[in-house]
Amino acid sequence: MSLLLCFISTCLFAQKNPAAVKVTYQKVSLDKVVEADNPIIVFSDANSTYISNKLLLDNKALLPVEFSIVNHPDSSYTVIAMLANGKTISTIDSVSLKKQSFELLPDKKTILGYNCKKAKTIINSNTIEIWYTNDLKLKGAPSLLGQELGLVLETNRNGSYKVTATKIEKLKAIPKEAIPTAANMMMTDGLSYRDLLWKSRFITLSVFREETINFSGEAKSNDSVFRYANGSIALRKVKFPEIIQGSQIFAGLTEQSAGDAYDRTGSVFVIPEGSKQSFLDGLREGVGTLPVFDNGNGKKYQGVVRTNDYTPILELMRFFTPFGIKKYGHIQLKDKTWHEVVPYRQDISELRPALSGKEVWVGVFIGNYDKGGHKINLDITIHNDRTQYNTANL
């Protein structure tokens, strides 16, 4: 009889305290379910918690995608990101979980049949309430917050965003398929990890690096950068990938004076291809080869209007340089620290149809008469976001 009671007691204890669990969480924002097809899924056992989601487990997640592994014995965690270029990056944090602090409150409620306690914390002016249970003798959470409290079944941020457990499955062990296979994984520090992950979310076309824009009869082209107008124009051919409609595209330029002390007008532009004649012909053969526009006051302008055989340049961004940034920073004023570089950024998403899948000449012009001139860098970034743009501008 005593053996039977012991057996029954052991069975009941095993049912109540499983070796592992799989918890599915629903996300609700302003009382509306969000990402209903991609709930958060957490696997936990006595030592580890794996934070994932349905699309990742089904191998349907869009890259880049992240998942986290918490090691409870030492309160550390590993974050892993699989990038679109086939690489995988990872970083380990052994400090952050230990620094989390909570106000333990007397409130109690039941979630999915489990007794839950309440904790509260404030992060970056956000009040976050956490409901957790110790009934299962396991730890885990749908995020990195509250991992060591117990098994978190609900988080509520500012009363407007909730993550709540909708299903708890008891397991004998965490299944192998719960852990995504990560090939070519590179370990890095936390700051580098966040930088690499951020940059992987968009495409960067590096057009110019430390390129000189000046005015000198000695200005020369090389095998990739062509210089015209005594060095005041630099051109490079760039192949744009196919850009999906709704993507955001930005032109980003930085400028420093390398000798020119004055403010100047500058332009970033594209020379479209597909016409019998282009602006490039004017650069190579002289402005006299370009179509002429007469505005009626006796002045003639060349290469500025479209004809059946000619397409003018497409300006991406116009800018003004300030007075001698960097080069003349040694001139001191009390309580003044001069900037070292000038950044310019322009949203050029409306020009997607003219760039997508095209190989075009991209140029930078700064009107100046100085041999030292200016140093510039130019990147074009493509972000696969969804945005509306005015097609009438095209």
Explain what this protein looks like in three dimensions.
The chain is mainly beta and 394 residues long. The protein folds into 2 domains: 182 residues, Clam (outer membrane lipoprotein receptor (LolB), chain A); 152 residues, Peptide-N-glycosidase F, N-terminal domain (Jelly Rolls). It is built from 6 helices and 26 strands. Strands 1, 2, 3, 4, 5, 6, 7, 8, 9, 10, 11, 12 and 13 form a 13-stranded mixed β-sheet that branches. A 5-stranded antiparallel β-sheet has the order 15-16-25-18-23, with helices on one face. A hairpin with a 2-residue loop joins β1 and β2. It starts with a helix and ends in an 11-residue tail after the last strand.
Kindly summarize this structure in a few lines.
This protein is mainly beta. Helix content is 11%, strand content 44%. The strands form five sheets. Strands 1, 2, 3, 4, 5, 6, 7, 8, 9, 10, 11, 12 and 13 form a 13-stranded mixed sheet that branches. Strands 15-16-25-18-23 form a five-stranded antiparallel sheet, with helices on one face. Strands 14-26-17-24 form a four-stranded antiparallel sheet, with no helix packed on it.
